Amino acid sequence: MRKQGNVWTIVRKEFARFFGDRALLFTAVIMPGLLIYIVYSLMGENIGKSHQDDNAGPTTVYVDNLPESLRGDFDSIPFQLVTEGFNAVALIGDSLADKEKNLIYVNFPPHFDSLIAAYDPMGGEMAPNVKIYHNSNSDNSELAYQTVKTYLEDWENSRNNMFDINANAESPDAEETFDMADEDDSLGEILGQLFPMLLMMLLFSGCMAVAPTAIAGEKERGTIATLLVTPMRRSELAIGKILSLSTFAMLSGLSSFLGIILSLPRMLNGDGVDIDFAIPYTTSDYLLILCVLISTVLVMVSCISILSALAKDVKSAGTLVLPLMLLVMFVGFTPMLGGDAPEALTAYLIPFYNSVQSMASVFSFNINPAAIGITVVANIAYTAIAVFVLTRMFNSEKVMFGK
Amino acid sequence: MDEILRVEGISKTFTLSKKQQKIERTTLRKKVAVDNLSFTANRGEIFGLLGPNGAGKTTTLRILATLIKPDTGDAVLDGYSVVNEEEEVRSRIAFLTSELKLEDFFTPNYLFDFFARLHGVPEAEAAERKRVMFERYGIDKFAEVKVQNLSTGMKQKASIVISLAHNPDIIIFDEPTNGLDVLTARTVTDFLAEMRQQGKTIILSTHIFSLVEKLCDRVGIIIDGRMTNCDTLDAIRDGMSLEDRFFEIYKTVKGGEE
User: Fold this and answer.
1) Which residues in chain B touch residue A226, judged by CB atoms under 8 angstroms apart?
2) pLDDT tens-digit profile of B153-178?
């Protein structure tokens, strides 16, 4: 009875410490989410703006010797077309290289139609060459270049068309679908690579915001020794610390994650991409992620707490935790390195790696319940071991009072 | 005499790091902080451990407070062993030292409740005790001020009162007046005398002769981790001032080495 009571007393004190400290609450929980939201949203808006700026002036396509057979096609391109009354040398040497970049200059060989009609691909002679001068530093010039180039290549292909592959598959009124991946899948794959890494890093920084202060800091300030002369068990102190720190780190991580989720659509919308993030996942998906996250944050807080207990002050705790942070970051990147989630369930016994792979599997719609179960159970088991270790450390005079 | 503390042959050896070896100017890897120390203290008295810095006073008190374990020997406080029954010992003592601090962020009011809860004091009892103690030591005036904003004197008062939240019988106090201004030091010595009146046992360590002469009933002199003399204040003084008597003893002990 008393045992539970003491854990709860410690948890309540830690909560009073975190939630009562407005500055800490703001910097660790509210600010990360808010900052991410604002920065990402602004980035999105600026990306949108820069595209508009580029599109401001019209792009002009200057053409010399435009063949009659292509006149109809060129009239329909989405750029301003000029076929006479310009100085080609000035265009290339002066404007395109320097001043006015919103243009390209297309130079067909004279009598292009009869040239290609007479050309024999097997004859060994050079094929007639169309020159397109452009400036790849200008988005507009580059766009016009790519458009005209594709135009001409398509036109060339259509002249000796013998068969098609997936004809009309890209057009909106296509009768048949050939790419069987549904949109959720491809979105899931992207998110499955991105989100686990982001979540791991955000959770870790959440842990870093509180765990070193709460353990190494208390040791440094001499306040933990005051606790150690009370009849409370060391294990109660360890459990109380880990539970309260985990809750706080979780809130901090979720705040950042919320910032990302809310700002991502705005950021991507700025880029002209329209994806609705809420749709692809069900409540049970989110619950699974939450289970994995909670078990992960317990392991993270445990590891950081143990390292912090070893350190003599907050500063050296930061140094000790650094290698762990790099490791977690690296593990976070593993879904991006390609390859599917590991089949062997034993792989889900590896801390951090199991969390990343479990989250990736949920985000990419490849949920393996056994793997997630093992991940959560293993993480809780590691936390229990950590409580044991931390208890031993609180009991050790070398660790707590060594100088 | 009702014996409340019996220390039986405790020893404690620390391993020195290279840095500590330099500070101590020694090439020995081990430092014997406490060497086969024995003494007893009686209920309701103030027992003073007197000795120069580094003699092993703090180590002895830390062992009594169960923060560290002796390599050999044991101490029995109110019937409980500091080696095997730490939790029982901790619930019967208050341990005060400048190294144990209160969290800056909280108020004396919150911390009193917090420590009372950790000691398992019933709430009504804790509330009444808090009211009386806070009033007696004037803490009620700053009960809601965060520790970080308190003066050194206020902090010391708050520490003392909070350490007594569970009404312990034994108060272990390491260097009670070290680093305190005259006013605060006076508050502390008055407090110790008052606690004795209430029947509490106080074990303190100090290197200040006047403090011992003013407060202590019995004195143990520690030099180099060994108890050289342990008796009532008068018996130790042997008609001299405590300071003169101490240096006489010190010379006798050190004389053989120099």
Assistant:
1) 100-102
2) 889 889 999 999 999 999 999 999 88
